[in-house]
């Protein structure tokens, strides 16, 4: 009998997996020439907020809302010029981080699809 999980968060192993994913992701972001201009040099706080957000986004505890209020992701990202090229770079880093973090399908695909929709929504600047 296969184990049933209520959320993606539970299915992938909870916070430890989110932590690993975010660490692997920001290691790439911090070196990506299309992304470094819109991210701070020290990604510690950015990564911490991402851990809170992804925990909540994938069905875990509502850590982001408890600390920072409603996510309002598009509004929070408006100060940064997010072009189609930057969206693609962000997704490229996330795809590689998902693989490195050994998140298995169907969860890896589900996560990537949800994050692709979010990344598309964040675009605010033409090429």
Describe this protein with a few key phrases:
127 residues, mainly alpha, Globin-like
Short summary:
This protein is an all-alpha fold. The chain is built from seven helices and no strands.
Strand content: under 5%
Whole-number mean pLDDT:
95
Largest sheet, described in full? Answer: none
Contiguous low-pLDDT stretches (5 residues minimum) are none
Helix content: 55-70%
Spatial separation of the terminal alpha carbons: 50 Å
Structural class comes to mainly alpha
In sequence order, what are the helices and strands, one letter per element? HHHHHHH
Overall body shape: globular
CATH-scheme architecture: Orthogonal Bundle
The strand count comes to 0
Total separate domains: 1
* CATH H-level superfamily title: Globins
CATH class label? Mainly Alpha
The CATH topology annotation reads as: Globin-like
Q: Taking Cα atoms only, what radius of gyration do you get, to the nearest Å? A: 14 Å
Total helical elements: 7
Cofactor: heme
Keywords: Heme, Iron, Metal-binding, Transport
InterPro entries: GlbO/GLB3-like, Globin-like_sf, Globin/Proto, Globin_bac-like_CS, Hemoglobin_trunc
Family: Belongs to the truncated hemoglobin family. Group II subfamily.
Task: Write a structural description.
This protein has helices at residues 8-12, 15-29, 44-57, 63-68, 73-77, 84-100, 107-122. It is mostly helical and 127 residues long. The protein has one domain (13-58, 69-122): Globins (Globin-like), CATH 1.10.490.10. The model has no long low-confidence stretch (mean pLDDT 95).
Which SSEs are present, and which pair or pack?
Elements: H1 8-12, H2 15-29, H3 44-57, H4 63-68, H5 73-77, H6 84-100, H7 107-122
Helix pairs in contact: 2-3, 2-6, 6-7
């Amino acid at each position: 009998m296969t184990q049933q999980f209520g959320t993606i968060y539970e299915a992938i192993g909870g916070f430890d997996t989110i932590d690993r994913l975010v660490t692997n992701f920001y290691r790439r972001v911090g070196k990506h020439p299309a992304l470094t201009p819109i991210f701070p040099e020290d990604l510690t706080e950015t990564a911490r907020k991402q851990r809170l957000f992804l925990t909540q986004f994938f069905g875990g505890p509502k850590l982001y809302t408890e600390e920072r209020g409603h996510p309002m992701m598009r509004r929070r990202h408006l100060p940064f010029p997010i072009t189609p090229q930057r969206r693609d770079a962000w997704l490229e880093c996330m795809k590689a981080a998902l693989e490195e973090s050994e998140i298995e399908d169907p969860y890896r695909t589900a996560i990537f699809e949800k994050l692709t929709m979010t990344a598309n929504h964040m675009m605010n600047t033409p090429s």
